[in-house]
Amino acid sequence: MNILNKINIFKPPGKNLTVRDDDTFIVSYPKSGNTWLRLFIYSYYYKDTTFKSIHKKIPDIYKQPKYLFNFAKSPRLIKSHEPYNSMYKKVIYIVRHPYFVSKSYLNFFRKYNRAYKDLSYESFIKMFNNDELDSFGNWVNHVSGWINSDLKENFLMVRYENLLNTPRSEFIKIINFFYGSYEETKIDYAILQTEFSRLKNAEVNNKMNLKMIPKGNSNYNFFNIGKNIINQDEYKIFKKNISSEFKNLSNTLGYEI
After folding, report:
1. ∠ CA(101), CA(102), CA(106), 5° rounding?
2. pLDDT value of position 207
3. Residue 86 burial by CB count (10 A; 0-12/13-18/19+): exposed, middle or buried?
């Protein structure tokens, strides 16, 4: 192995991950519940209330080093925010109302990027709509790319709202999709351990070793909104500044705007 390859194995693979045919990916547009679902699945399989090994058991392609993926046993369960990728053969895709995605994403940027500290919601929504935030494409292109894929029985779409309102049936469906069967007591345990209020309290009081959540600006929490509560003034701004494509896809998914 040459020097360059030795260096690269310590870097996250990102979109250049070498995909295996039996990999399962947890995919979503950012701030749609990916971390929450990852925590639930980890809690189901490993009774570890600190989640200290989650980065090894369910690695993130943007944070964990390449060597960890290389040595992981199959089948791997992997976190990703990538837009549609035909190399992904089995996918759990999480979708969330774009208004709440935007609120959570702005909070995320304020926590980890000083340049966004004083950015108004209206300015952020314009960037959100115009694909000016990240390398994942805008919400419309990301969601439509995945839900219109040809993965068929190897594609499971999960609504964030259903995870909130009917967690037991949703999590059973997810575990069945990944593993083929489930255990009642493990489902109940994982739901209890990953209640949003419990995760938020653990973050605030540093009671959880979450390596995938950097500290950032302490004025903002990673586990921030959870339940969907509409700010009517912001919602008017949201509806005013999103495109017709946003509205049409939202309505198709049952998110009436």
Report:
1. 120
2. 58
3. exposed
Please list the rounded mean pLDDT of every run of 10 residues in the chain (257 residues). 64 96 97 93 86 90 95 95 97 96 89 77 94 93 97 97 94 95 94 82 61 54 63 94 95 92
Separation of alpha carbons 138 and 41, rounded Å: 27
Phi then psi for residue 36, to 5 deg, are -60, -50
Q: How far apart are CA 183 and CA 167, in angstroms?
A: 15
Q: Enter the pTM of the model.
A: 0.90
C-alpha span between 125 and 241 (Å, rounded): 7
pLDDT at 220: 47
Q: What per-residue confidence (pLDDT) applies to 230?
A: 85
- DSSP class of residue 60 equals B
Name which of 198, 257, 228 is nearest 40 in CA terms. 198
What gap in Å lies between CA 172 and CA 20, rounded to an integer?
25
What architecture (CATH level 2) is domain 9-252?
A: 3-Layer(aba) Sandwich (3.40)
Sequence-separated (6 or more) residues with CB below 8 Å from residue 226: 164, 196, 197, 200
The closest of 245, 225, 211 to 104, measured between CA atoms, is 225
Query: Per the structure block, which two tokens stand in for 156?
Result: 């499971």
Domain residue spans in the chain?
9-252
Beta bridge partners of 159: 95
